[in-house]
């Protein structure tokens, strides 16, 4: 990273809101990697702690009462982000409703920004959730990066202290964040010269 380049602001959007969830373990591991980098700054947006309204207004109408206050805890943070990492489990071969809801409530916040994925689950490791998210993120004019981190049988990949016991995951995290940083800087620089057109 050039000495004059400002670090990228990375919003880590945690999709699971299920009770007894594993998401905090995976998120802590990811933010540990982000904290080691000088070119990236993490902002964890946990949808269990900052829930969004679940009833979208009719097109062109105002949001339901109370929605503005809930959105104010999330929307400015997504708008300020230069890049995103979505942390998602896999539920019924897809991603959680809370994550889709967060995507649907926002528009320009996603435009022309890179998105990486960290998924977890059983045998599939959440990869089916990621494949569906790629299609959704393309529709909101975001750029998904190829490299992902996927924890297959995730509960066996961490010890009782939440430490990852799989060295391959750490290698995958570096590749993911390197790609995210490249795309983040490239897109941020491009938008500083020419506004993004959706």
From TrEMBL:
**What Pfam families does its record include?**
FMN_red
Q: Where is the NADPH-dependent FMN reductase-like domain?
A: 9-155
Q: Which GO terms describe its cellular component?
A: cytosol
Output the superkingdom of the source species. Answer: Bacteria
Q: Which InterPro entries match?
A: Flavoprotein-like_sf (IPR029039), FMN_Rdtase-like_dom (IPR005025), NAD(P)H-dep_reductase (IPR050712)
| MF (Gene Ontology) | FMN binding; oxidoreductase activity
What is the name attached to this protein's record? NAD(P)H-dependent FMN reductase
